[in-house]
Amino acid sequence: MCTVCGCGTDTAEHSLIRGHSHSHAAGLSSARMVQIEQDILGKNNQYAAQNRRWLAERGILALNLVSSPGSGKTTLLTETLTRLQGKVPMAVIEGDQQTSNDADRIRATGVPALQINTGKGCHLDAHMVGHALESLPIANGGILFIENVGNLVCPAAFDLGEAHKVVILSVTEGEDKPIKYPDMFHAADLMILNKIDLLPYLTFDVAKCEEYARRVNPTIQILHVSATSGAGIEGWIDWLICAKPPIQA
């Protein structure tokens, strides 16, 4: 039994193939690696389907926020929570390898947050999220923000039961990220281009970045935001409100 996520594979085997389907490991054939990956993703998808049903029954919008480390994801999230306070019920699941720093920042806004430390794991999975839902208080009709581990590779493959993946890309990272990490941008429904207040000081090509993003995902929506200056935040808030599902009868 894997001690990381509870799936039926060996923990060491799970750690070897997380996000690395083309890697090599001593003692494991390529066929065995593929089989392990299929088993893990299959089990994860079962948990994700359970989470999705649970959320849909309660009319809760769940968003999987993904990005590289340092993209400003947590700052954007705290600003979002502050602006939505009193308008809609909210809760946050925080994923990091270590520390509860981000969850502490979230709780300072008054919104309940549950920290998941993945240790050597490079992403959250649906089993972890399902356990979090058992103890995280969130009212029907609310919004659940899942801040995934900072990583543009592994989280792309793991469905958590969310309604949408939202990828946050900072203008300090380089406009070619969408074609360097195409799986993530293909999986996302929305790309938030963050830290746009820094554009005057950078050589970041916004048009080229958007072209690259739409090359790998022609239907991706794109918002321009600065979590620090507040520019574009209202467009993000409007997107959230429009995305909220009705509560099932």
TrEMBL record:
The keyword Translocase does not apply. One of its GO terms (biological process) is protein maturation. Transmembrane segments: none annotated. One of its GO terms (molecular function) is zinc ion binding. The keyword Hydrolase applies. Keywords: GTP-binding, Hydrolase, Metal-binding, Nickel, Nucleotide-binding, Zinc. It comes from the Bacteria. Residues 64-223 form the CobW/HypB/UreG nucleotide-binding domain. Belongs to the SIMIBI class G3E GTPase family. HypB/HupM subfamily. This is Hydrogenase maturation factor HypB. It comes from Thiothrix fructosivorans.
